[in-house]
Write a structure and sequence with these properties.
Number of strands: 10
Shape: elongated
CATH class of the largest domain: Alpha Beta
Radius of gyration: 24 Å
Structural class: alpha+beta
Helix content: 40-55%
Strand order of the largest sheet: 6-5-2-3-4-7
CATH topology of the largest domain: Nucleotidyltransferase, domain 5
C-alpha cells in the first residue's frame, strides 16, 4: 500500500508546475440525494489520529456527524477508516441515495478498483466495498481539501478527543462557522492545474478560466459539471493505468527472482545481469525504456528512434 501511495505522489510531482488559482467550494448533491463528506487526520507514528464525517441535505443542512479517535499507521488508513464509519452511519439511518466525497484519490482508487488488496488495509477496503453494495444508490467521488473543511474539523476533533466515539445530532461548536461558510456557497482559493484547450491561445484560456469562475460565483444554484469531481475521475483513471504498468514491472521482478532460485547454481542468473535487469525495470516504469515482448527483456530507445521505428513500420 505504501509503495503504491509513494509512486502516486512521485508520478504527480510535475503537476505542481504552471498552476493557477481556482475557486473551490462545497457543492450541493442532486435533488433527492444526501451528501456525505469524510476525512482522516493522521498525527504520525505514535501520535493521536482520528476520523470524522458529516451528512447533509441538498440545502446544506446538518443531518448527522461523527468523530472518532483511532490508531493507524498511515494517512491513507485514516481516510479509509473515515469512509467506513460514514458508510456505516448511512446504513444505520437507512439512507436511500448518498453522494460521498473525500479528498484522498488513492483511497478512492483502492476501493473502486476490482483488484484484491493486500496488506494492513485489506480488511478496511473489503468492508467499504461490502457497505457500498448495501446502499441502494451511491456515488463515490473525489473533492479538493478546501471543499472538505467540515469533515477535516471533525477528524481533528476525533484525534483530540479522549471520550471514545462521538456521534452528533447537532453540529459541534467549532464546526458551525465552517458549516455556515459552505451553506452560503463561499469559495476558497486553491492552486490547481489549468484546463487547457489546445485550440485556444494562452490568452483565451486565461480569459475563459476567469469568466467561468465569475459565472460560478454569481450563480450558486446553476448545475455546472464540477471541475474538482472531473479531475478526481481523471486521477482515478491515471492510477489504474499506473497500476497496470506496476503489475507488469512486478511480474518481471518475479521472473528474475525465479531465475535466481533455480536448483543448480550454474543455471541461475548471475548478479551482474540481475542488477542490470532491475535497473531496466525501474527506468521503464519511470517512462525511460520499453519492454521487448519477443525477447522478454527490457531495452532502451531514444524518442527520435521511437519515431523512426514507428514510421518504418508504417511503410
Amino acid at each position: 500500500m505504501q509503495v503504491r501511495e509513494f509512486f502516486y505522489c512521485v508520478d504527480n510531482q510535475e503537476e505542481t508546475k504552471n498552476k493557477v488559482i481556482k475557486q473551490v467550494r462545497w457543492s450541493k448533491p442532486e435533488v433527492g440525494w444526501l451528501k456525505l463528506n469524510t476525512d482522516g487526520s493522521f498525527g504520525g507514528e505514535g501520535a493521536s489520529s482520528g476520523c470524522g464525517g458529516l451528512l447533509r441535505d441538498r440545502n446544506g443542512q446538518w443531518i448527522r456527524g461523527f468523530a472518532k479517535p483511532m490508531v493507524v499507521s498511515s494517512s491513507l488508513a485514516a481516510e479509509v477508516w473515515a469512509l467506513r464509519e460514514g458508510l456505516t452511519l448511512c446504513l444505520d439511518l437507512q439512507i436511500q441515495a448518498v453522494e460521498i466525497k473525500l479528498d484522498a484519490s488513492a483511497a478512492i482508487s483502492f476501493i473502486s478498483g476490482n483488484s484484491n488488496t493486500n496488506g494492513d488495509l485489506c480488511g478496511l477496503v473489503d468492508d467499504c466495498r461490502v457497505l457500498l453494495l448495501q446502499l441502494p444508490q451511491v456515488k463515490l467521488l473525489h473533492c479538493y481539501r478546501e471543499a472538505n473543511s467540515c469533515a477535516d474539523a471533525l477528524a481533528r476533533l476525533g484525534a483530540a478527543g479522549d471520550g471514545g466515539d462521538s456521534y452528533f445530532v447537532t453540529p459541534p461548536h467549532n464546526v458551525i462557522p465552517l458549516l455556515n461558510f459552505d451553506f452560503l456557497g463561499k469559495h476558497r482559493n486553491r492552486l490547481a492545474p489549468p484546463i487547457v484547450d489546445p485550440n485556444l491561445s494562452t490568452r483565451k484560456v486565461n480569459e475563459t478560466v476567469t469568466e467561468t469562475e465569475e459565472d460560478n460565483h454569481d450563480n450558486y444554484d446553476h448545475k455546472d459539471p464540477e471541475p474538482e469531481a472531473e479531475e478526481g475521475r481523471h486521477h482515478i483513471e491515471n492510477l489504474r493505468q499506473m497500476n497496470a504498468n506496476m503489475h507488469k514491472c512486478l511480474l518481471s521482478v518475479f521472473k528474475i527472482g525465479l531465475a535466481c532460485s533455480l536448483e543448480l547454481p550454474q543455471e541461475r542468473m548471475n548478479m551482474e545481469n540481475v542488477t542490470r535487469e532491475l535497473h531496466h525495470i525501474k527506468n521503464t516504469f519511470l517512462g525511460i525504456g520499453f519492454m521487448d515482448n519477443n525477447q522478454g527483456s527490457w531495452n532502451f530507445v531514444k524518442k527520435s528512434d521511437c519515431r523512426k521505428s514507428s514510421l518504418n513500420s508504417r511503410v
